[in-house]
Every structure is written in C-alpha cells, then in structure tokens.
Amino acid sequence: MFGALDAASSGVSLGRTWIDATSDNVANVNTVRPAGEEPFRARLVVAQSRTGTGGVDVAAIRGKPGEPQVTFDPDNPLADEEGYVTQPHVDLTEEMTNMMMASRLYQANISVMQQARETYSAALRIGTGS
Description:
By secondary structure, the protein is α+β, with helices and mostly antiparallel strands. It has helices at residues 3-27, 92-128; strands spanning 33-34, 43-49, 56-63, 69-72, 84-87. A 3-stranded antiparallel β-sheet has the order 1-5-4, with no helix packed on it. Strands 2-3 form a two-stranded antiparallel ribbon.
C-alpha cells in the first residue's frame, strides 16, 4: 500500500544527492591545482533501480573520467615552477543541465509523495465514515 511513498522517497533522496553533487561541481569550476596534481573532477551520481520493491538507490558517486588539462598561467599562485596549472575537469554547461534535471526529479517525486499522502488520507476518511 505504501509502495508509491517508498518509491517517491527514494527518488527524492536521489534528487537531493544529485543536486548536492552538482552544486559541489559548480562551486569548484574554477579550482585549479599545480601541474602534475590530480584535478578536481566533477562528481557523477550513478543511480540503480531497486529490485522487487521499486524506487532507486545511489549506487556510486564517481569522478568524471578524462585526461587532466594543463594550462600556462604563470601569474597564478598555484602554478608550478614552469608556470603551469591543472584545470578542473568540470563542464559548467553540463553541470547546469544536470542541476535542472536533478531539480525536476526532486520536484516530481515530492509531488508524488504529496499526492500519495492525500490519497491515503482520503482512504482513511472513507473508512471512518466522515
């Protein structure tokens, strides 16, 4: 009977995790490191469907794969001896798109939870004869 609430609750949790990861990625879009050091990598949330019960779980949070980009910026205080820094591995356009999708996921699941709550409340009222 409460399957809709459980599934929507897991969707809200996934949406919150995705929003948190994406906001962290956006906050670090300008985080540089000295050349040769590992760059900040955008966090990617991996979702997995629940078997049998419905809903979703966060399977993993991984760093975005790819080769680090090193740029010449001798005025940067983090530049190495030759003046190079490692750029973060974050695409702001991609992150803003992810933020919109995660926000919609969160909103849709909150809406389902509210609708399920109202439906269960109406069923209880019917049972009491009110």
